Amino acid sequence: MPRSSVRTSLRAFCVLASALALGGLAAGPGAAASRSAAEVTVFMMNDQFVPKQVQIHPGDSVTWVNEDNVDHTTTSDAQSAQQWDVLVHPGQRTPPILFPNAGSFPYHCNFHPLMTGTVIVQ
Ligand SMILES: [Cu+2]
Q1: Which of 32, 43, 79, 108 is the most exposed place for a label (fewest CB within 10 A)?
Q2: 2: burial class by Cβ within 10 Å (0-12, 13-18, 19+)?
Q3: Residues paired with residue 5 on neighbouring β-strands, in sequence order
Q4: What secondary structure, in 3-state letters, does 43-111 show?
Q5: In 3D, which of 87, 74, 89 has the Cα closest to residue 41?
Q6: What's the pLDDT tens digit per position in 42-69?
Q7: What CATH number does the domain located at 37-121 have?
Q8: How does pLDDT run across 15-31, given as a tens digit for each residue?
Q9: 105 C-alpha to ligand 1 centroid (Å)
């Protein structure tokens, strides 16, 4: 291999290493602010929330979609730090519900006591 091409390879390696170092810095404090908010969907199907538990980050939203042919609600439990209560007719969806703060937020359906779920924000 001619000497010049070895040098080129080394140079490419250094550029790559710098990019990785910058990437490492970007993952430090402040990175969360630049992360774009996610929107997660929970389905209401067969009288269950699917998935039963979702994990999101502060600032993300959850939308519930009713795939059943009966009414459901997504209703925060009494002890939940964030409160919401939305009726969802068959085939309908909720607006995105924003979760700005970290925590564990249990919820249920008002019509089906066994229909429960949890939004975990961390
Ligand atoms: Cu229900």
Answers
A1: 79
A2: exposed
A3: none
A4: EEECCEEECCEEEECCCEEEEEEECCCCCEEEEECCCCCCCCEEEECCCCECCCEEECCCEEEEEECCC
A5: 74
A6: 999 999 999 999 999 999 999 999 999 9
A7: 2.60.40.420
A8: 434 444 444 444 444 44
A9: 18
Query: Domain-by-domain residue ranges, the chain?
Result: 1-35, 37-121
Ligand 1 centroid from CA 38, angstroms: 25
CA of 113 to the centre of ligand 1 (A): 8
Ligand 1 geometric centre to CA of 21 (Å):
50
CA distance 100 to 51: 21
The length of the chain, given as a count of residues: 122
Strand partners, 118: 53, 106
